[in-house]
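Retry 2 of 3 after timeout on previous attempt. Resubmitting C-alpha cells to design endpoint.
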C-alpha cells in the first residue's frame, strides 16, 4: 500500500506539472483555489496538533530521565545538523564565489518596499514569542509562543500528583488528539488532489518570473547546499546509527513532498507525525515530542539561506568578509535558524531583519524575492527531512 501511495503521489505530481505547463487561465484559477483550501486545512490541523502533542507527551513522560534524555538528544542533533547545513553553505559560497549584482538592476521602488518591510521586524519577532494570553498565540498560529505554553502546561501536569481531575484532563486531551489524527488520515487520503493543484500552481507562477543571470551562482549555492545536506549529510547521520537512509526517505516521502508544496514545516507537522509513526515505526511518545520541537527549532535549510544570503548582501554592500566575519555569521545563522518559526518565508524575513540590523542596504533582497518561492520549497522539504531524521535517531537512541 505504501508503494501504491508513492506512485499515486508521483502521478499526481506529473499531472499537476503538465497542467501548470499548459498555462490555461481558468485551470490555473481552479488549481489556486484547491491549493489554498488544502493549505488552510493543514494549517487548521497543525496548531492543535502542536499543542496537544507536546502537552500530552510531557504530561506522560514527566520530568524524569526518559524525557531528559529525549530532550537532550533532540537538541544535540538539531544543533549539529543545523551547524552542518550552514557549514556546507559556507563551503559552497567560497567555492562558487557569486559575483555582485549591477546597481542599475535594482529598481528604487523595489528597494523602498523591501526597506519598509524590514523595519522593526526582528524586534517584533522576538517580542511576539513571549505570550501575553492563551488565545492570541492560537489565533495567530505563533508556534514559538505555543511551544512555551505547552512546555509549561505539560510539565505542570506531570508534576501534579495522580488524581481523578488530572486523569480527566489527560483523557480529554488524548481524546481530542485522536480525533485530530483521524481528520489527518482523511486529509492524507485525498492528498493527490492537493498535489495536482500545488504542482500546477508552482509551474504557472514560475513561468511568469525572470531568473537573472547575475544571481545564478547565488541560487546555485543555496540549492546546492540544500541538496548536499539532503542527500549526503543527513544520510550519514542515519548510517552512523545503522539505519538505512533510502528506506527512511521512502517512508517519510509523503511528509517531504507535502512540505515542498506547502512551504511550511508547521503546516506539514500532522503528516510528518503520521508518516513517522506508521511508516518508520517511530514510537508515538518520541514522534509527538521530538517532531513539534524540531518543527520550531530544526531549520537546516533556513540556516544555509541566512548564511549565504547574509554574505551575499554584505558582499554587494562592499563590506569586508574576513575569516572572522564568516565564522561569526556561521554562528549567527545557526542561532537565527533555531529561533525562526516554521512558516512560509520565515527565513526571508529573518534575513531581512538581520541585514537591516547591521545597516546594510537590503535593496538586493527585492531581486531575490521573485525566486525565493522555489528556494523556500526546497528549504522546507529539507527541514522536514531533517526533522524526520532527528526523530528516527532519537527513537533508535531511546530504544
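Retry 2 succeeded. Sequence:
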Amino acid at each position: 500500500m505504501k508503494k501504491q501511495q508513492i506512485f499515486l503521489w508521483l502521478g499526481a505530481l506529473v499531472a499537476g506539472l503538465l497542467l501548470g505547463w499548459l498555462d490555461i487561465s481558468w485551470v490555473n484559477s481552479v488549481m489556486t483555489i484547491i491549493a489554498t483550501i488544502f493549505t488552510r486545512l493543514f494549517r487548521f490541523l497543525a496548531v492543535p496538533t502542536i499543542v496537544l502533542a507536546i502537552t500530552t507527551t510531557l504530561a506522560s513522560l514527566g520530568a524524569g530521565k526518559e524525557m531528559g534524555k529525549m530532550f537532550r538528544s533532540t537538541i544535540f542533533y538539531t544543533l549539529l545538523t543545523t551547524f552542518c547545513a550552514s557549514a556546507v553553505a559556507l563551503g559552497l559560497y567560497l567555492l562558487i564565489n557569486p559575483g555582485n549584482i549591477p546597481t542599475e538592476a535594482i529598481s528604487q521602488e523595489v528597494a523602498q518596499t523591501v526597506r519598509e518591510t524590514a523595519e522593526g521586524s526582528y524586534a517584533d519577532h522576538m517580542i511576539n514569542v513571549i505570550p501575553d494570553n492563551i488565545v492570541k498565540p492560537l489565533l495567530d498560529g505563533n508556534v514559538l509562543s505555543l511551544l512555551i505554553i505547552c512546555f509549561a502546561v505539560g510539565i505542570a501536569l506531570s508534576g501534579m500528583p495522580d488524581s481523578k481531575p488530572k486523569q480527566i484532563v489527560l483523557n480529554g486531551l488524548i481524546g481530542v488528539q485522536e480525533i485530530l489524527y483521524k481528520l489527518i488520515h482523511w486529509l492524507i487520503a485525498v492528498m493527490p488532489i492537493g498535489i495536482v493543484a500545488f504542482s500546477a500552481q508552482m509551474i504557472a507562477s514560475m513561468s511568469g518570473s525572470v531568473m537573472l543571470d547575475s544571481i545564478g551562482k547565488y541560487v546555485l549555492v543555496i540549492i546546492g547546499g540544500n541538496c548536499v545536506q539532503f542527500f549526503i549529510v543527513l544520510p550519514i547521520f542515519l548510517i552512523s546509527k545503522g539505519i538505512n537512509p533510502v528506506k527512511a526517505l521512502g517512508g517519510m516521502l509523503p511528509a517531504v513532498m507535502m512540505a515542498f508544496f506547502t512551504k511550511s514545516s508547521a503546516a506539514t507537522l500532522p503528516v510528518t507525525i503520521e508518516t513517522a509513526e506508521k511508516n518508520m515505526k517511530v514510537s508515538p511518545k518520541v514522534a509527538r515530542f521530538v517532531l513539534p520541537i524540531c518543527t520550531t527549532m530544526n531549520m537546516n535549510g533556513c540556516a544555509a539561506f541566512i548564511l549565504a544570503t547574509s554574505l551575499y548582501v554584505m558582499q554587494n554592500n562592499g563590506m569586508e568578509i574576513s575569516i572572522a566575519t564568516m565564522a561569526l555569521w556561521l554562528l549567527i545563522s545557526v542561532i537565527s535558524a533555531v529561533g525562526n518559526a516554521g512558516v512560509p518565508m520565515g527565513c526571508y524575513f529573518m534575513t531581512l531583519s538581520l541585514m537591516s540590523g547591521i545597516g546594510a542596504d537590503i535593496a538586493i533582497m527585492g531581486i531575490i524575492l521573485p525566486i525565493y518561492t522555489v528556494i523556500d520549497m526546497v528549504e522546507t522539504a529539507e527541514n522536514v527531512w531533517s526533522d524526520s531524521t532527528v526523530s528516527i535517531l532519537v527513537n533508535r537512541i531511546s530504544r
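Attempt log closed. The chain is about 80% helix and 0% strand.
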